[in-house]
Amino acid sequence: MQKKQISILALQNANYASIVDARAVFKKVNELYRERYKRDFFDIRIIGETKQVVIEDGLVTITPDTTTENLDEKTDLIIIPALRGDMISNSHHNRFFIDWIIRQYRKKAEVASLCTGAFMLAITGLLKNKKCTTHWNYAKEFRYYYPNVILVDEKIIVEQNGLYSSGGSNAYWNLLLFLVEKYVGREMAVLIAKHFVVNIDKMSQTPFIIFNGLKEHEDEEILQAQEYIEKNYADKITIENLCEKLFLTRRTFERRFKKATHCTVIEYLQKVRVEASKKALEAGRRSVDEIMLDVGYFDSQTFRQLFKKITGLTPVEYRDKYKK
Fold first, then answer.
1. Same-domain status, 196 and 249
2. How many Å apart are CA 82 and CA 222, to the nearest integer?
3. How far apart are CA 151 and CA 180, in angstroms?
4. Cβ proximity of 127 and 121 under 8 Å
């Protein structure tokens, strides 16, 4: 059987750990596979624009296995590492990879972006009208620049049509394990998970998300509504009241609110209230019912169901996990 070709991109302003960890995972697969079958499963190469790529503010210099001048041969899997700094300018700095990624995908190669590497994948246009995920803290920025991509930022791993993406920071370990299982099998993925001490089936990053409503828009009335909700979330807030304050019809207000924030008014209020309850639970000084009342809910079952829907945990589970 021919070895699977894996190309890990040494991008400018990349997160060094994501490059090294990806390489380490596939090298370990080769080591274990070699013990059993006397050969490697993967052919792994690091690709850079030049013969040396300096990243991490000059702290790290990578010597790639090959450069972009030698990218004619086909690959089976492209790994886009996480990026640091300004996502759009960093994607632009690495634009020399874009056409190659597109060509390889058209030749049936698969592409996996780690964490904020989703910005680099999105700039290729391959994600148009497709689902992906990225670090939750960059979700607003991602939606702003790539509105034609379906971002499911609560997920740790998203797969669609041979395009893979992972959630925040260390979530890329879960995607790497996912790829090992896909290519080599579950048994190997379990062995790799045990070797690197990684929880193999973690699929959601909702417990880690800090909600911060999208405000990088130019709709002043909607911005006023957001600020009012965030200051008065514990009170009874209705859409009718907000419309009256802003002198807007309900239909116009709801349409503009969704366009500006990517949330309905009710979803926005729910997320603000749950975020406030998360902070109170982290402090660990009050009961769940007391916190529920403080953030504006009066039905215990409704509050608990909503909290779990947004965070992936019950209020008690969240408190036990994060309380001081």
1. no
2. 33
3. 24
4. yes
Half-sphere exposure (CA, 13 Å, Cβ side) for 50?
8
pLDDT at residue 52, rounded to an integer: 87
Same domain, 200 and 235: no
Amino acid 93: pLDDT: 82
Considering 161, 179, 208, which residue would you say is the last residue of a domain?
208
If one counts every other C-beta atom within 10 angstroms of the C-beta of residue 102, the result is: 14
92 plus 194 within the same structural domain: yes
Question: How do beta strands 131-132 and 66-67 pair?
Answer: unpaired
| Residues 232 and 315 reside in one and the same domain | yes
Whether 215 is in a domain gets the answer no
CA dihedral sign, ordered 135, 153, 106, 33? positive
DSSP characters for 142-188?
HHHH-TTSEE-TTBSEEEETTEEEE-SGGGHHHHHHHHHHHHT-HHH
Residue ranges in the chain whose pLDDT is less than 50: none
Which residues are CB-neighbours of 106 under 8 A, at least 6 positions away? none
pTM equals: 0.69
Quick one: pLDDT at residue 89?
A: 85
* Residue ranges making up the domain that contains 260: 220-322
Residue 213 lies in a domain: no
Contact 137, 153 (CB under 8 A): no
Q: What is the pLDDT of residue 295?
A: 93
For residue 38, give the 3-state DSSP assignment. coil
- pLDDT at res. 170: 84
Domain end: 208, 242, 262, which one?
A: 208
Tell me, yes or no, whether 168 and 234 share the same domain.
no
CB 140 within 8 A of CB 216: yes
Helical pair 300-311 and 315-322, crossing angle rounded to 10 deg: 50
- Residue 177 near residue 169 (C-beta atoms within 8 A): no
